[in-house]
Amino acid sequence: MASPAVSQSQKIYQHYEQIWFQYFNQTRISNKWGLWFDAGYRTKDDLVKGTSTLLARVGAIYYVNSNTRLMGGYAFFNAYPLEANIDIAQPEHRLWQQVQFQTNYPKLTMTNSIRFEQRWRQKIIPPDRYNDAFNFNYRLRFGINLQYPLRHKKNEAGDFSLVVGDEVMLNFGKQIVYNYLDQNRLFGGFRYYFNPENSLMMLYMNSYSQTNVQALYRVFNVVRVSYFHNMDFRKKSQNERESGKEINLTH
Description:
Layout: E1 5-6, E2 12-28, E3 33-45, E4 49-65, E5 68-79, E6 90-104, E7 109-125, E8 129-149, E9 160-172, E10 181-195, E11 198-210, E12 216-232
Parallel strand pairs: 2-12
Antiparallel strand pairs: 1-2, 2-3, 3-4, 4-5, 5-6, 6-7, 7-8, 8-9, 9-10, 10-11, 11-12
């Protein structure tokens, strides 16, 4: 439940508890090219109260090599603002580009990512009217994800892995005044592999967010439930897939 609290420095913190459900699909169509799709639903507060966000994201993947890939595409978000005086969802159109690196150790897998986003969010006239104009800003996201198998080999059927990571998001652009630090997401949890192509991840995430209102901050305690589905349509003779080579996003 949202509960503002004022610290000695007069910063105001609002606290929320949410659940995020998300489906991720990575489809390999050749040795060099693939497709990306993910969709999600997020609750608003008290874990099961209301709707916060609906989202869908599509993109193309270029495989530089087995451990490095370039990605880019389009995303649509329909978010219900947390402000009490707004009664409609705020549409957002987003372009995104990303580079992702994976480093494989004997057991540990480390994934680093850098994502650049261009965001257009429709302006709202409270409580329930849209403005024809859009707010625009850029955002940079830096992520690190560590995965360690607790039994069996990496990414094989029955593998149960420990997952920890962090992602920092920075805003910039003419319309950014106070919230240069958009978010910091620290997470940890477990991932279970039904087989190398299908896995389920359950995480706890703490997200610290700076708003565009001076001295107002938000803290999100989130349960994240994500299903990962890897597909490969390369011919068998061309298929060079190895365990641990499929990199998945966690955000």
